[in-house]
Structure formats: C-alpha cells, structure tokens
Design a protein that fits this description.
Elements lengths: L3 E6 L3 H10 L5 E6 L2 H11 L3 E5 L7 H11 L6 E5 L5 H9 L5 E4 L4 H12 L18 H14 L8
Helix pairs in contact: 2-3
C-alpha cells in the first residue's frame, strides 16, 4: 500500500498515542492534533486520506469538525468518530446522517474492528492484487433440464403413503 496519511484528533494524550500506535506497522503517516481548531488547520495543510476524531473536542466540537471536513472534501475524506461520551445508536445515527461521519466507534474501542475499518477505507484499488479465477463454461439450460428429466425418470417411486 502506498503511504497514506491519517489525522488523529483526541484531547486525551493517552488515547491519541494509543490510536497512533495502532497504525505504526502499516506504512501510514500519522498527523496528530489535540483540539478541533488545530485539527481543522492540520486537515487543510496536511491533506490526510482519513480522519479519526474524538467527538468531544475543545475549541471545535468533533461533530462540527466532521461536518466541515466532509463538506470541504466533498465527502472524499472519510471521518471516523470515536467517543467515550456519546454512546448509543441515536448519537451514531446523528453523526452519520447529519454530520457525514463514515464510521462511529464507542470507547472502549474494539481496536481490531477500528483498524480493519480504517485499512479498508484507505486501501487503493491498485493495491489489491487479487486474481479473479476464470470460471468454467456453464452448460446450456436445455441440457441441464434434459439431464434432470432423465434422472427423474430413473428414480424409483418413494415408499411413502399419503
């Protein structure tokens, strides 16, 4: 995978560092910010491929930051919200429908799910070198029907009494 860039935003330094550590073995450049305003500046200057942010941020709320990023990037930069505060499907729905978040994870995080989600979102199609196997030629429908009809003729009647 060509090097990608992720902006990670969290007011809690411990959470910020643990999120960054998730991606250290994946050829991903990490840009960090600790508040919404600084994150928005870094988004504009660094042009990340994806943003992971805590919903509760000082200076610019995470939901508002999400909306600004989605609007400015015309939806091309996925924003994944992680939160320990806004728990429940109503917040998830609001974040995704009204603010444009691509993903929503509650703390404590399932780090494996988050990692897989992020990697699937930033992987280029050109990075996938999966060969599609060639399918064998399928028989004509008429020959399949004739074959089934022959089998039915040869099948002995069942012993069931109705």
């Amino acid at each position: 995978m060509a090097e990608k860039k992720i902006l990670i935003v969290d007011f809690d330094i411990k959470s910020l560092e643990s999120l960054a550590e998730l991606f250290e073995n994946h050829n991903i450049q990490i840009v960090k910010a600790r508040d919404g305003a600084a994150a928005y500046e870094k988004f504009q200057s660094e042009k990340p491929d994806l943003v992971i942010l805590e919903a509760m941020l000082p200076k610019l709320h995470g939901f508002d930051l999400t909306q600004k990023i989605v609007k400015e990037s015309k939806g091309s930069v996925p924003v994944i919200i992680v939160t320990g505060v806004y728990k429940g499907h109503q917040y998830r729905n609001e974040a995704m429908r009204n603010f444009g978040a691509s993903g929503y994870f509650e703390k404590p995080l399932d780090t494996k799910k988050l990692l897989n989600d992020v990697l699937s979102r930033i992987q280029d199609e050109s990075d996938v070198e999966e060969e599609i196997p060639e399918l064998p030629d399928l028989p004509e429908a008429k020959s399949v029907i004739e074959g089934l009809a022959e089998r039915l003729k040869k099948k002995p009647p069942s012993d069931k009494k109705e």
